[in-house]
Amino acid sequence: MNALQRLAKSAGLETAYHDIWGNYHEVSENIQLRLLNRMGFDVSDDRQIEASADTQENLLWHSLLEPVYVLCKEQPLRVTVVVNDDDEKTLLGWRLEEETGLQHSGELPLSRLEKQDEKSIDGKRMRRYLLPLPEHLPLGYHQLHLALSGESAEQAESTIIITPPQCYRVQDACPDGRPWGVAAQLYSLRDQHNWGMGDYSDITPLAQAAANEGASLLGLNPLHSAFTGHGHHISPYSPTSRSFLHTGYLDVNAIAEMKECIAAQNLLMSEEFQSQLEGARKSEVIDYSAVWACKLPVLKMLHKHFAAHHRDADSDRGAAYRRYCALGGEPLRRQATFDALFAHFREQDSNSFGWTSWPVEYHRADSDAVARFAESHYDSLDFWRYLQWLAHLQMQAGAEATVDAGMSIGLYLDLAVGSDGSGADVWADNDCFVPGVSVGAPPDKLSPAGQVWGLSPYNPVALRRNAFRPFIQALRASTQYAGALRIDHVLGLMRQFWVLEGEHANQGVYVYQPFDELLKIIALESQRSKCVIIGEALGTVPEGMEEKLASVGMLSYKVLYFERWPEGLFKRADCYPKDALVTVSTHDLPPLAGWWQASELDHMARLGHFHSAEAEVHEREQRAYDRQRLLDALVDAGTLPHDHNIDAQQTTLDEQVLVAAQAFLASTPSSLLAVPVEDLLVLNNQVNLPGTVDEHPNWRQRLPRATADLFSTDIAQQQLDAIRARRIEQ
């Protein structure tokens, strides 16, 4: 094995892989070198590659302690200690501080420790010992400090993360039932109060209406911080930050300052504003720029009022805001700084998008230029902090509304794969990400050319060096509100498909992540927040992946369209796993009415996405075949009668099929069931058509009915009746 191969392996690169069709792909040396350089390795010549390989292979032999240890509570609590000392009488002093502040300490000679291994590096004899930690350490995040006696007097500290063996389970939340719920895109909700798109206040009436039908959970699209006000970069799966909330979802009328601020009230009553607001509300599809243009001036007035009357005053509201800012700390300060800079440079150039388009002196959050900007734009930073606080309050109210409505699970939220490379997360924690690289997917059936998502990946080496801090922040940002959390593309926890900027997806590289440690941390945050975790693993799934997820109590994610046997037959309902969430479709696929009609194939044909006329014919013939196979499965399950008289060659969906499909999924032993509102309303168009931006109204479609009427139609009630009849308590 040469030096480049050694470095690639130790850095986690998989230099060859088989795609979904079994085709073998080998990654060129040029791609490997460029990617390793992006990860921070010196690969400028053969000598440096050799040195980088040596350093990386011996990484854990160079320091007294590793930067972090993630230990399961049910296993022996021991950490490795590496010393360069032949005198086993050398004393090792240790102090462990629990996150509660409770401290443990001790001192013992190295001779009392179990020696695990030894190695000679650059002529030095290194020994690795096992240091036992105090028994019965609580779950959580603790700090270990070590100091050696003798000539070296070496010192080190590390984060100790103690985790449970499994995630919070559905049966913990619902010991006597088989819960189900409704999934919706928040922005798509219609209500008289909102300003052209759904907002946080829409969660409450939807939760109440769904709970009245018997739902135990309410699913929503990712609500991460976005490029607020930008009319094109609107995908909830390409957030600017996964650690903060989308301020564009604020319900302006629900903000407390609205009742006090005369200037804002007068603005809202003005003829010009009402005309502008009416335009945003009447837009056929959501006009994000128009909605934000209405909200922004009002929010600025409300912030000015808040700053004058509450921010520094001895009032409950001012005190609550100051507590929020103190708890948010440096991450909140950096998020607010990014948002202020984003708005600042957008005012100068409307085409400016994210930190990669800013002057170079603003490319790092810790630069002098950024510090000077923050100091001279205090009110702007405070405005964006204020908006995050308001979003937190309104989101918290939505979560509480699900509990008040009687939902045993509550909000079912979605964690995006990553953050946009031009966004706040990457800017604020630049060293933890890999610049100039995007997460994507290799060629597969859904996307024969592969996919490049524009999301910057964590650098796995830097992630451990920082004790997984950014990953933990992203998890907590969602689990604090959620009773269930879906992790999109959970495959990325094991390995991610990285594509260099400017390259096609077929030139991507799989890079392995610290999978076991990430799973343990998820289990810890899941238990702390009492949040069920669902792992979406669609696509090219590595062997053993699903078993590994199940071993920590993570539910799998099963989509009706994909649950087939190799020969194409749909699986029987009783073959579905117990530890799973089941659903007909996802945001990237058509609802059942659209799938039956082959609406996505119509869109692909219109956009010229088929590489040949023969390919289109084949796909349409395959869909007709699939329609018949679905009918067969529903008849076999007893949810559709034998004499249904439905013709699989007809592309208009008979609503019997929709009811039978929901009954089929409700009959599975799977723990959770989510029903998309698009199916309840028998809609055709999918929320997002992968591979398009403006060619399809992705993330812009509004529901045809108001929230209060979503469950009132006969077909919606037939579906809900079928679900309720089968999701009986057991």
Instruction: Give the spatial strand order of the biggest sheet.
Output: 12-13-16-20-23-24-25-26
Q: Please give the alpha-carbon distance between the first and last residues.
A: 58 Å
Q: Which residues form runs of ≥5 with pLDDT under 50?
A: none
Mean pLDDT: 94
* Biggest beta sheet summary: 8 strands, parallel, barrel
* CATH-level-4 superfamily name of the domain at 222-406: Glycosidases
Based on CA atoms alone, the radius of gyration comes out at 27 Å
CATH fold topology of the domain at 222-406: TIM Barrel
Structural class: alpha/beta
In what range is the share of β-strand residues?
15-25%
CATH class identity of the domain at 222-406 = Alpha Beta
Q: In the CATH hierarchy, what is the architecture of the domain at 222-406 at level 2?
A: Alpha-Beta Barrel
* Outline: globular
Q: Report the helical percentage.
A: 25-40%
Separate helix tally: 22
Count of strand segments = 26
Question: Can you describe what's shown?
Answer:
Among the domains are: 74-163, Immunoglobulin-like (Sandwich); 222-406, TIM Barrel. It contains 22 helices and 26 strands. It is globular. The mean pLDDT is 94.
Based on the model shown, name its key terms:
730 residues; alpha/beta; Immunoglobulin-like; TIM Barrel; eight-stranded parallel barrel; six-stranded antiparallel β-sheet; 26 strands; 18% strand
